[in-house]
């Protein structure tokens, strides 16, 4: 109930505006922003109250079907905060920014990434799809340009010609991916959020994010699966 919720101050509004302009922010940047907004607008600041500060904003965003969500970078395990639109599936939200065949290319790229073993799709494989699009075929040059835009807009990340889903995309599309890829998309056994770049237990099939694998096995001399206790045969990153 919004009337019961803590009041929004200018600090909350400023914080929300900056986050909206970035789309997604890394955890330490978000904490700095929290402090700066409170200082500028002379609002009580406590370094361990970021979650409370955000939940005040979220209670006021609720009627607008929006929410600030916290997620994790699959590369380094760092926290990130993103503003998410809950009213529509993210693919339809993307529709206002991209043409139909660009969206089809994105969907096909997503198919490749989610069905891959390591959570990546090569640019060669993606570009090979460009001239098979049902909506309107794309020349390779054109498709390269579109991929570049997806990276700039933080839907995809690229490393040495390999593409994966950007942290922002994972935070925003988690529900969409879990419901649209029920046989392939899985949650990490440790942090229980969607895992794209992950390792799989050969015995029982549970999935773990690479940063979660690193953290979980750090103190163990012999890595054993948290679920079935069998030897963890993947290389610990």
From TrEMBL:
Underlying gene: Nsmce1
PROSITE patterns: ZF_RING_2
UniProt domain RING-type: residue ranges: 188-229
UniProt xrefs under Gene3D superfamilies: 3.90.1150.220, Winged helix-like DNA-binding domain superfamily/Winged helix DNA-binding domain, Zinc/RING finger domain, C3HC4 (zinc finger)
Swiss-Prot/TrEMBL catalytic activity: S-ubiquitinyl-[E2 ubiquitin-conjugating enzyme]-L-cysteine + [acceptor protein]-L-lysine = [E2 ubiquitin-conjugating enzyme]-L-cysteine + N(6)-ubiquitinyl-[acceptor protein]-L-lysine
Role according to the record: RING-type zinc finger-containing E3 ubiquitin ligase that assembles with melanoma antigen protein (MAGE) to catalyze the direct transfer of ubiquitin from E2 ubiquitin-conjugating enzyme to a specific substrate. Involved in maintenance of genome integrity, DNA damage response and DNA repair.
Compartments it resides in: Chromosome, Telomere; Nucleus
Entry similarity comment: Belongs to the NSE1 family.
GO BP: double-strand break repair via homologous recombination
TM annotation in the entry: none
Assembly behavior: Component of the Smc5-Smc6 complex.
Alphabetized CDD domains for the sequence: RING-CH-C4HC3_NSE1
Pfam families: SMC_Nse1, zf-RING-like
UniProt-listed InterPro entries: Nse1, Nse1_RING_C4HC3-type, WH-like_DNA-bd_sf, Znf_RING, Znf_RING/FYVE/PHD
Designated name of the protein: Non-structural maintenance of chromosomes element 1 homolog
Class of enzymatic activity (EC top level): transferase
GO molecular function list: ubiquitin protein ligase activity; zinc ion binding
Any one GO cellular component localisation term in the record: Smc5-Smc6 complex
Keywords of this entry: Chromosome, DNA damage, DNA recombination, DNA repair, Metal-binding, Nucleus, Telomere, Transferase, Ubl conjugation pathway, Zinc, Zinc-finger
The enzyme's E.C. designation: 2.3.2.27
